[in-house]
Amino acid sequence: MQTSTIRPKEDQNLWNFVFSVFFIMVLIGALWVMREVRGGFLVSVEPFDAVLMAFASFRVTRLIVYDKISRWFRELFVQRRVFEKDGKTWVEITPFGRGFRHTIYNLLECPWCIGIWSGLIVMVCYFIFPWAWSVIFFLALAGAGSLIQIFANFLGWRAEYYKLEANIKEKSGATSDRSGL
Question: C-alpha dihedral over 91, 97, 101, 103, to 10 degrees?
């Protein structure tokens, strides 16, 4: 028996289609420019350079989707309401209900979507602009550093979880030992 999925109705199919077509047009244009500049289509990439491009794309994706420094850009596509509560100033962020800005907001909140765009931009820059290798190398170092930091955070959170779990077991064990006296 097949189960159904329920989700809120969004009238975004038109804009999603428009952006999909736009991406395909940009991709075709990028391939055409790369062919014109390089004299042919891409046939191979050195493994080291492919890894660099992957790390650079990862870093650009995190920068756009998650980092506070680019929050101002993401918030261009939302409704903001500033208010006071308990002596503090708060900002309420509400995505637009539909339309162009709602689609852009969805795109900017989606790491997979931005990852595709950043991958395309990194690849085109790598193959067209000689100076881009230095920028990609810098972004790749930052991306590798981000991954190391994510892994270190994971290990720290896991250690804290086990420490809390051990404390809970110790307290429950100490309580039960005392009740038996």
Answer: 120
